[in-house]
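Bumping with the actual sequence this time:
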Amino acid sequence: MKLISFNVNGIRAAAKKGLLNYIEEMEADIIGFQETKATEEQVREVLFGLDYHIYAYSAEKKGYSGTAIISKTEPLSFQYGIGIPEHDDQGRAITCEFEEFYLLNVYVPNSGSELARLPYRMTWDATLLAYIKELEKKKPVVYCGDMNVAHTPMDIKNAASNYNRTAGYMQQEIDGMDRYLSSGLVDTFRSLHPHDVQYSWWSYRANARDNNVGWRLDYFLVSESLMSRVKEAFILKEVEGSDHCPVGITIQ
């Protein structure tokens, strides 16, 4: 199976920049989208005609956040949100159950330019980890999405100037990722490419993408029991249409 995660930064805007062609070219079995900025009906309208089952979860606030999963195989079950109202009004998480794993697709809250949402972000990380551990009691988990953190200096171009100053590279956020990994989840890309410096997000400013001044914010984490079946982990930096690019894995 080929699984893709892609923050599209507005699925309707991305569609005008070639998203449907990219979907066809990627030939994925499952794709998780983040930051769709659209209602379920709008997502279905954009993706109409594709040979996928579509699950879309929108925020109460129009044009904000939002996630979607499309899958060639119909899941056994699906859930919007994580079952906690204070976290479930922003359309940030969808879980689809397949025969051998759960796929959890998430758009993790950004701490904000003034770090005003950093405390909420910390609460979110802890709550989501508890949710994942509950899922793992039943079967392994594939957790993908825009996690809004550069985990190590390898994952951000200008580490020293951003450390503890910029949302996405605060020590509290790094600690949150550490807790995921110490609890039995594996960063698939870093596990298979321990020395590769690749990014999945670039600012729209100062020609950052052309100059490869980026951050790795998009991940696939999997339960340890599933990692032996992950044969590839990749970043598709040539795919445009958003300030992020898709990331993915193949599972045998």
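The tokens above came from a reply further down the thread. Residues 77 and 97 are 5 Å apart (CA to CA).
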